[in-house]
């Protein structure tokens, strides 16, 4: 059987309609009919029962379809694997995240990537604030998904995957906890707990030293990881800004999450080291964009 005969037979077996099959294969219905007739002459009998209103596989046609389809898919996958190897899609992609909701997105994207390109695997790493960009520069990670901004001119930010409202985490015992929302001016009412190892650009974007009205924001202790920061908040040592989804992933009885009513959203994006782009990485970014939630 020639390739176009296989593809025509399989398409017609699925569509059971000559017009739809022709549209799918970008040929005329007459061409589909001629190809099937030629195939049937070679096999020695009909593969389809035809009438003006009905197209169905014959018993022989059903058996041919059942045996031919897996073999055809195997050939397609072999060709795709060979092509992907030359395009750099094989091998291991190391993906990092700091926020759990970014990790969930990476896990889903990894499943899609491996389903489409079985020769590619994804290693997933949760990183602290301090280790995230160090991992990129130290050749431990190929890609990182986290809050913008990036850390330095040697890191490239891809397209924003999603945005979310900004919240403030405060001790449950603090007077702000009784409110439904807070403003940026309220940052002056308690010490701000900050992450160790974050760049100054990141701190300026998420942990301001002054409110928009010019009031000084008290500086509280610093912590290496998110769980440590929440423990400090719960102990009454201060508050810290975060994306609103943290309330779904990190609920605790000793803290409260309050939405800002005047703060810009938190944007999340894929990031990688300049000059380290690859077909594997770009394919993964495209899948992240496919799966990213609209918020």
TrEMBL record:
Residues of the HTH lysR-type domain: 1-58
Keyword Ribonucleoprotein part of the UniProt annotation: no
PROSITE patterns: HTH_LYSR (PS50931)
Organism domain of life: Bacteria
Listed Gene3D superfamilies: Periplasmic binding protein-like II, Winged helix-like DNA-binding domain superfamily/Winged helix DNA-binding domain
InterPro entries found in the cross-reference section: LysR_HTH_N (IPR000847), LysR_subst-bd (IPR005119), WH-like_DNA-bd_sf (IPR036388), WH_DNA-bd_sf (IPR036390)
Annotated protein name in UniProt: LysR family transcriptional regulator
Species the sequence originates in: Streptosporangium pseudovulgare
